Amino acid sequence: MARVASTVGTTMGAAAAENGTVAAVPLSSRRRAMMLALSAALLLGDVYLHNPRGSNNKLNEQNNNVQNNNRLFDSQNNNAGGYQVGDRCDPVCQGAGGLNPGSTEYNRSLPGAAQGQMYFYEGSVLELEWTNQHGCGSKQGNVECEIVIQYMCNDGAGPYSSPTLRDGLEFSRVDGTAGGPQGQAPSAGRANESQRGLHESLAWYEDCKARERNKGLYIADQNLGGGRDRATNTRQDRGAPAQNNDNDREGLECPEERDYFPYWHPTPWRDIAVLTDDLRRCDFYQAASQNVRDYGNCCDPAVLAESGHCRQLQAADEAGPNNEAACVARGGKWREYGRWDTKPPRCGQTPFSRDNHLGNAAPSAPGTPDADLAASRFVWSIPDDVLDETGADEATCVLRLRYNVSTTDYDGWAGFDGRKTSRTPVDSVFNGGDALISGNEEADFVGFSPMEDPPLGTDLRLELNVNTDQLGRTFQDRSHTFKIKRRPSSGPCASAGIYNLNVRGRRGNIVQVYPSVEYDFVPANLEVSEGECVHFQWTGSDANQGGNDGNGRDKTDRSNLVEVASLGDSRPARQAFASGEPAVASMFVERQAVAWWTHRSDEETEWNYSMAGARTPSLICDDETNNENDVRGCKHINAAPAYFDGGLVQMNRPGTFHYISTRNNDFSNRSQKATLVVRGWRLTLVVAVGVVLAVACLSGVCLLRRHARHHPDGRLARSRLGALLVRCPSLTAMVQRSLACRYPATTALLCLCAALWGVGFRLALERTGAPPSYPYAKGFGMALNVLCNLVFVPVMRNLISWLRTTSAAAFLPVDDTAYFHKLIGALILSAAAGHIACHYSAYSWRATYGAGGSVAGQALGRWDGLSGHLIALFMLLMSLTGLERFRRARFGLPGRRGKVGGYSIFSHVHKLWVLVLALLWFHSRSFWKFSLFPTLLLVLDKCIALRAKKPVVLVRAHSPTKDVLALTLRLSSGRRFKFKAGQYVFLQCGEVSSEWHPFSVSSSAEDNHTFSLHIRCRADMDWTFALSQALLQQDLVTVAPAVSDVEGGPRPSIRTKRLMSLSDDDLTRAVEASPAIPAPLGGVPVGRSCGPSLCVDGPYGSSSEEVFHYEVLLLVAAGIGVTPFASILKTLARQAQTNRLETPLKRCSFFWICRDEREFQSFKDVLVDILADTALANIFELNTYITGEVDLKAVTADASYNQFAGKPDWGRVGRALGESFPASDVGVFVCGPSALSNQLSAMCRTLTPPRRRERRNYGAAADEKSVYAEPRKGKFVFHKEHF
């Protein structure tokens, strides 16, 4: 069973019933009506709509008070509120009209009277503004408040559309009430009389009058008996019995629908927004809106069959059914219809305002400067589907704003949204004698009696000032009719954003107009972007009460717009197009500025301004008159109509512009000033596009030049463009020096973050009621949406390895994945800090202005806040443990012997990424849109990684030096392990831990079955040292046989040269020949997986793979960093021997830097074997450097490679290579510490100077002549090994 609840109305509740209908009898406890809490006092909570002009049932009476408060609807407001309908007489709707009207009495018969109707374009932005008396906002503890904003149009859509929606011309109770004279039954003829206003249709009222009221609602002790059983009878509006209830009707309004929301039958109103004190109700409001769902009605089958229209089934002596069961029992046709098929209403926080006050509320419009206070506001985007039903170019509409106030004495929502579930929701069970509060109830509420000693002669009772038909109350105001028009199909505003700029208020001082307001522009602070359009339009009346304070002709509303230099000025500023100084730049072009200044915009105006600003007096104006009632007093704007339409103006001049109305800006009496900010973006866009294009061009030049250099026989290299790219010194120098060639990805990433922040900020500006810091928070949030997905890309090893094989590797940073992973992580932390700070600022703002609870409650009391804090905590932990200093440290943990390495902690903490990603999906409603594809890609990468993990057999494990572990492995499947020289794998040993650690493959890619790893395993390295202990359980002994073992000979020591020089092929053959040879004590049997279980994951690519693309190589290794180059050197040597090199190799200079002599032992024979081939000795140059203490007596000179003590002079080394091979690029590859990498990177930059010709003078005789030397053509390209 579905509940249908409500919050707007006298109780602002609605009954729950099966299938969304209501019962005609008191509902059971399972089907009780839901209601908002009622107040315990009389609530005078009037609401007044100021923009668009709210009528409060006024038309054109020359009086501050409404003369017929039943004309169109029941407002429950003070009769002094509201604004007269707009006029459009030229120049005034008074007396005889024309230039000599004489009397100031309003003349409704003149052309243009009551015709000053506003219009708004589809999709344009309109700021609604209102004041409510009894307070609002969640921090307003005196009341609970709900505001519902709706509109209705004559577009022919919906079941009760009124095709002749109009304001009318008469306001009397006899000739002006909608449907016919007050006290008489309405008729179709009278409903169509043009002098009567009309909102709801006659069919709507007749069906309401015929339908039984919802008897499951709470009505307290109000008597709705005696025939008061129709939907025209409610607790707030009891009305008369059914036989004569037309005496109390308010136009053609349905009282039950007016008092409750959402209503349980189809209505002619479309929902715009629901503002509530409790945002937990938003899901319900949006789901129950008629915008998105149908509601049921009991149809008369005869009428339905004849006309196809559903009219309420009724009988002469009883009310018609209001629910499906009763409808079917009475022979009716239950039909559900009325859905508007449009967006659900926007739901937001009610703006804070204090009670017993009709002044300003807390800021509710984003972007307002200094968080200024203003009237309650809501920014409405005029819907673009209103005209779809008829295909017409315009529709007449009316706006309705309903305001409910109640207290918490009774909780109508108990059990519905989880609040106060111990309390019983109030419904019809508490009606009549069971009412919890009765009218003017008297009792000893405090509990003093009985008091007998001493006798006081009183029972100390109190009387409550209570009228139960006003316990919880709904007020409303409606605008005068307006039109919605199609956007222009052509012109500069056809596709640009449109903002409406209007004028609110009416003639009189603050006392005379109260509870309406004096003149002001709406919005007072308007911000638009360059190229967007502003629709300048306002209206006024010529029927204000005589004698009200004001300027210009009595009883008339007039406004104009004149620019000033600042808001503090009252004197208009001289425009830049006029003569004289000083002058200010206008927001308009010249003719538009003149039109606004004079309050005339049409082409037939009699105003005539020259370019110099001199005016030619016309026949209309009398510049000398000081009579403010003279229509010819143009300086008082008397000759202009009350309605003004300046049309659409595209704002093409960025800046901040201030303006006033010279007629109404009366300083100490009233102020009519405003500001328009035009945010410039075109120049910024041009600069940004220029920068992007420049970077793209430079990057393209880099890529093309690289392609031409690496493919000298290609089409590009042979073309003129290729020759220019390769040989032109100045162009090459420019490219090499540019930022695009060195850090294009970093620059692109930072630009992306800035663009995302701007997009998020701009989109958030459209939200109504948001704190000032909200758009900034959303800007950071938009950047986080992308960054939190992008951070996974650099660590998708399979994806990166695949990208290395594509042309994308030329411009993607596939060699710096670790750097970009860290960079993105740093950007995430920065954006998250900004996001959190802005949200806390918003929490503080809401707590201050009563739009929310405490800061802590807002931050942690909602899922998005709690999940956000968890995400931030986990990300911070991952970032801190990812620092290099942390990873290299060791920590003692409670309850654990020894210390734990920082890398182990880092590895385990980083697994929180799974939880972080899951939290992000549920933290933000829009995150999934950004994360769906990256998450699928991440899952695919992980699935591929699962297949890449393979168990391996330990063939040999030995320790060539004290701190190095050498492993020879082969796949358990017996298949060949395929890899490229320079690649790396991840190794796992189950007996040590579940961690995976990366190591470079040190064997040649040409080997058949086995591959080798060399691992540093010092005692301070927790995982690798534990691995060495697991694999080498006793002293350093061999676990693999030599060839003599197979033959039955003695088993030599690991330290013998014979074993060191044993080739992988020989070893494999030995393993296959004797798979069960017993190992020495503590060793592992050869070829048998009875020791620790090992698995590898990979291989994965690295920057070292690029070595095969260079003719000249400089390979630099430090310590154990020799492992990738051992594989590379052996592979290059074998390819050179068989003439299979990808690029002809001219020189390969290898530099190995170690602390002592012992570190050379593990690869010394490999190096010597390469030089054993005379042909290879001319290509390969091997250099070893010992940086630590050297015992010269123990050093044995070896002529096969160069031996040095100390550190290399990289400048000398680089210059020697450059001079030997001036036309070739030199690939510089390094695997070692950061200090060594920085030195080699600096060398590459130094030896690759800008392309310029060097001037050389040869003595005094050569002063007039110079010889230019051409520098080397090749460059040094730096590559750093990263894991």
Task: Explain what the structure shows.
This protein is α+β, with helices and mostly antiparallel strands and 1283 residues long. 26% of the residues lie in helices and 17% in strands. It contains 32 helices and 38 strands. Strands 2, 4, 5, 8, 10, 13 and 14 form a seven-stranded mixed beta sheet that branches. It has a six-stranded antiparallel beta sheet with strand order 28-27-30-25-26-29, with helices on both faces. Helix 9 crosses helix 11, helix 15 packs antiparallel against helix 17 (817-849) and helix 31 packs across helix 32 (1234-1247). It starts with 46 loop residues before the first strand and ends with a strand. Mean pLDDT is 76; it is low at 1-44, 364-371, 415-423, 576-582, 600-618, 729-742, 1034-1090 and 1252-1270.
Summed up:
This protein is of the alpha+beta class. Helices cover 26% and strands 17% of the residues.
Largest sheet: 7 strands, mixed
Q: Sum up the overall morphology in one term.
A: elongated
What fraction of residues sit in β-strands? 15-25%
Number of E-type strands: 38
* Gyration radius from CA atoms, angstroms: 43 Å
Structural class: alpha+beta
Number of helices: 32
Regions with little confidence, pLDDT below 50 for 5+ residues: 1-44, 364-371, 415-423, 576-582, 600-618, 729-742, 1034-1090, 1252-1270
Distance between the termini: 60 Å
